Amino acid sequence: MTWNKGLSPEERERRSKAWKQYAERLSDKKIPEGGDFYDTGRWSYLRNRTLIKYGQKCQKCGFGGDSFNPLQVDHIKPRSTHPELQWEISNLQVLCKSCNKEKSNKNESDWRRW
Known about the structure:
Blueprint: H1 9-25, H2 41-54, E1 71-75, E2 92-96, H3 97-103
């Protein structure tokens, strides 16, 4: 499902500009000293865009997530070994907590279905 389905061209353009402005405000690539990557506004934005792009289901098992096994956005190639890819949506996938834990950061399995 597309985020802009059923919107007028003007409304699509307005929303697209708003997202771009929001992204620009969050575009600092530096993580504040003592800060956590996952607490940055930029990560929050990227996580939300990934969930919109790939959907609200685990890309490995198809589970929709719940409070005991929530959906997580996973780096296919781990940040620890590929820091240059940490901000790339092409390196992200949606996994439930169980599948993400099973994958760990040693495995580079790509479960996205195109």
